[in-house]
Write a structure and sequence with these properties.
By secondary structure, the chain is α+β, with helices and mostly antiparallel strands. About 40% of the residues lie in helices and about 25% in strands. Strands 1-2-3-11-4-10-9 form a seven-stranded mixed sheet, with helices on both faces. Helix 2 packs antiparallel against helix 3 and helix 9 packs across helix 12.
């Protein structure tokens, strides 16, 4: 038990390697549990027990969908009986399954642990899922914001699998078989590659006991080595363009950053990246105010910082009648901050704002559990952000801008309105 930032954190690692965390908070109306595996859409190329494998795009997401199936029914139907609210998601870097409930926590946790670690794939249910996910892919392909967002990764990276859609394509998922899914489950769904985080009201001893009993204990972890392609400092494409049925252009601008170095804190890099993005063009930044008052961006404009295995970038964007002018202004601001540093008043104000946003996460059980999982996969604890913030200086942020200011390190992804002839 570690008291951090006024909160207790219970943590242990089971004999099978599963990391378990519990953040007690009786003020929450519901208890939230998240079970995540360190396997995301970018994990397409790897060796399993020395044998090279290359997956079609979208396997991690497809596997997420199929894990709810079981020989004795569907986990969603079981949760419908208990009254819990379940869901799941696949990101570039993880696959996560979660539920929230007001009572019956132990029963709901048992459902979660059983279905995630018990694969059940048949030719029939896999083939059926291809149609369902194909429709989901079609909806994503028709969503301008998603097309612009994926376009920026396509432009930033030459070989890294992040440049392909998380859900894959209709063609890529067509080759998925039960055998492939079983292999991926064996490779990545081992307890030692997973993390369970619970936030709310639960019995810690019972939580640990259930996790130990209901997760695999006899199989050794497979040897998996992941590959993400040869890293290149410059972007693959300066501009990525699409045309869709939009009333005005929507865009995303990406700044390519260097990957985490060996021994570097993921939590600290994420905090510095978030702060730099906020200083550059956050809602209360000088540049955003200028762009908004000049009608170059709307309130939909947003920014973020993303860390990937062997990759990192800042992305910002929204709607604009003139994306190229916005790009120029953002790149000029980066060059200025890189050369002159960040004004002290701006740095102090934005640092306090970013700190406040992280404090707010402590009151959101779903965000808190996800943040803790991301930190845990890097061997860190999210609740340490308060101490880490104290070490961040204006020079740290300036050095990040220096990296973003390097030649050929930005990509503009734009979705333009269709012309009359299209």
């Amino acid at each position: 038990m570690k008291p951090r930032f006024g909160m207790e954190l219970h943590q242990t690692v089971l004999d099978n390697g599963l990391s378990v965390y519990y953040l007690p908070n009786p003020t929450f109306s519901k208890t939230f549990a998240l079970l995540a595996v360190n396997f995301g859409s970018v994990d397409e190329r790897f060796t399993l027990d020395g044998i090279p494998r290359e997956l079609p795009a979208g396997v991690a997401h497809f596997l997420e969908h199929k894990m709810f199936e079981d020989a004795d029914g569907n986990a969603l139907q079981k949760y419908a009986v208990t009254g819990a609210s379940p869901n799941a998601f696949t990101s570039h870097t993880m696959t996560a399954y979660h539920f929230s409930c007001t009572d019956g926590f132990a029963e709901n946790l048992e459902i979660l642990l059983r279905f995630v670690f018990t694969p059940y794939f048949t030719d029939a249910n896999v083939q059926k899922e291809k149609g369902i996910i194909g429709q989901e892919i079609g909806m994503l392909d028709d969503t301008p914001d998603w097309v612009a967002y994926m376009g920026v990764f396509e432009g930033l990276y030459h070989e890294h699998p992040v440049h392909t859609s998380i859900a894959g394509s209709v063609d890529s998922i067509s080759g998925i078989t039960p055998s492939l899914l079983f292999d991926c489950h064996r490779a990545f769904y081992h307890p030692s590659n997973a993390c369970l985080v619970v936030c709310g009201t639960a019995d810690w001893d019972e939580l640990v006991r259930m996790a130990a009993v209901l997760t695999p204990s006899d199989a050794a972890a497979p040897v998996v080595e992941r590959q993400y392609g040869t890293r290149q400092n410059t972007v693959a494409h300066s501009v990525i363009e699409h045309r869709m049925a939009v009333s005005q252009p929507t865009f995303q601008l990406g700044f390519k950053d260097k990957p985490l170095e060996a021994g570097e804190s993921r939590l600290r890099r994420q905090l510095v990246g978030d702060l730099a993005a906020r200083i550059l063009c956050g809602r209360t930044s000088p540049l955003f105010t200028e762009l908004y008052e000049q009608g170059l961006v709307t309130r939909r404009f947003d920014s973020s910082y993303t860390l990937l295995p062997q990759g990192a970038c800042a992305v910002c964007g929204g709607d604009s009648a003139d994306p190229q002018t916005v790009r120029t202004r953002l790149e000029q601001a980066v060059q200025t901050y890189a050369a002159e540093g960040v004004p002290e008043e701006l740095f102090t104000r934005m640092k306090k704002a970013c700190y406040g946003l992280n404090v707010r996460v402590l009151d959101e059980p779903d965000d808190l559990c996800r943040s803790q999982v991301e930190a845990a996969f890097a061997g860190e604890c999210y609740l340490d952000f308060a101490q880490v913030f104290e070490t961040i200086t204006a020079e740290d942020v300036q050095q990040m801008f220096v990296l973003w200011a390097q030649p050929d390190c930005t990509t503009l992804s734009v979705v333009w309105p269709r012309t009359e002839n299209e």
